[in-house]
Predict the structure.
Amino acid sequence: MRFRQYALPLVAVLFTASACKKNEPVVTAAPVPPPAPAAVTPQPAPPAPPVVDPNIAIERARTEMINTLAQEIFFEYDQFDIRSQDLAVLDAKAALMSRHSQVRIRIAGHADERGSDEYNLVLGNRRALAAKAYLERKGIDASRIDVISYGEERPADPSATESAWARNRRGAFEVTAGRDQLGTIR
Amino acid sequence: MSRWFLLLLVSLGAVPAAAQDPVRVGIDYRPGIRPRIVILPAAAGLDSARAILARDLDYADRFEVVVLPPGDPASTPLIAGQAAAAVNYELYRTLSASWAIQLERASAGMAMTVRLHDLTADVVRRDTTLAIDISGAGEGRMDLHRLSDDLAGWISGQRGIAATRLLYVERGTQRIHRVDSDGHGVVPMSPGGATALSPTWSPDATKFAYGVLGDDGQSPIVIQDVVGGARRTVPTTGGGGNHITPAFSPDGASLAFTRLTEQGSAIFRADVARMCCVERLTATRYPANLSPTWSPDGRRIAFVSDRSGVPQIYVMSADGTDQELMVPFDFGATGASYAPDWSPDGTRLVFHRDVSGAPQLFVYVVGSRQVKQLTSQGRNEDPAWAPDSRHIVYISDRTGRRQLHVIDLETARVRQVSTPGIARLPAWSPSLGGSR
């Protein structure tokens, strides 16, 4: 059941990653967190317009890349292993960061509200570090990745339900430098 | 019948106690026996003061407090200056009372005279006139709390804990708030707009330390003055990365805290007298170490570590050596244990441990190495000792939403300290202001 929830975004991400490699128009991965009911079907790539203002094209590509970099990953309760369905999300980030050497990111690790408030900060830290370690293994220099833990202090959904908790156990990604470079390199 | 039993104990105890300790005027406190105190009706204008004293003595959990309503046959006031009036004492003794507290307005303005009558010896043990704001408003409340603590000390030999304050984090605003131990005077302390966590008092109660969680990736430990609010960042904690769970050493010169690093979370120690000299105390490569708490002699630090898998309570010397398991547990059966706090008298640790999915309070007795479960209903977590090493403040949701609660270890009595928001991560101040 859980797989079904993730299936569509995952497909979108895979598509994004392969699209980048082939220098084809990038399709934004649907930024849908797992418990959200409405999955977004990836739009078929529109036919390339005959004449494109290069600035608009760069801006569009930049937005799409930032979305790719910002896409969240999620964790099982009290766990900090990267789930297999999130590997592609991280692969897409690693690919982008490899090609944009000025880009730096900060990974924020979050926990749900269960468990000890103070230990949840440790758990959030471990989740952020797990994502960082994966990106490092994909060749991204550690100095380009900061981590911070927000424990249970910044819930995406403050309600006390299983689906809210699942949504809150997340790794969030923020571009802290090199935005200008994004979109200029395909 | 119980009345005579009580009186017998009271009179037996009176002589040796008085001989041992010049401050102590009454009986030795005996667990399970709570001397009865009559709070006499007071003149107009003293109602607030009387109500505050009565409640403080009640919250001390050492006495049975009887507040006589006006018009009660037994409420004939004792005559000032004729304290040994035998007839009146006899009247209060019929209530099985051992002590009577009498308040009077002193002739001079804001002053109040307090008389402590020892009903077992027909004498006035204390007769003090204090300059005090009898309205019980503002800072005047704290003066009345100090008087309550004095009275508790004069009667039982152990000062009360009324003149204390609690710090806690309010969920939502994420600011540290302060509240008097009786639930009055809620004030925000840490600045708005920033998440503050895990407040802890300095031993002299002039400062408190806490972890800040900024939106900019910074997460330092900050020390803030209680008066004036000046803030300082503890060295090495301002350069990014999480810093959490600070704890002052008993002499106030050192601060232990946790840094979340890529090699696990480790406990560090900074010299906060000179604001320098940060050293690492735990060196284990991967596991988490956090939530340090000092023994009152300053020689040891208990903390949480998951080096054996599940988080449990460990202890080390204050220089980081001799790390060992402190609180015994059954591997694979005992739930994770968190948030230890070492009692001010050094004899016990309180902490919370997961039991069937909910945190519950436990006390570990250092001498006997025994573990006792204190709570079982709802969620009960993040405990902190009162300065009397007898009361514990913690967060409980037993009344619906998470609020401060206080439990007395000897009577098991629980009271809620109500605050407007949802309360988390409490810390209990030392006694504020010594004996007058």
Notes: DSSP finds five helices and four strands in chain A. Residues 1-32 of chain A have pLDDT under 50 and may be disordered. Residues 117-137 of chain A form the longest helix (21 residues). The beta strands of chain A are 73-74, 104-110, 145-151, 170-177.
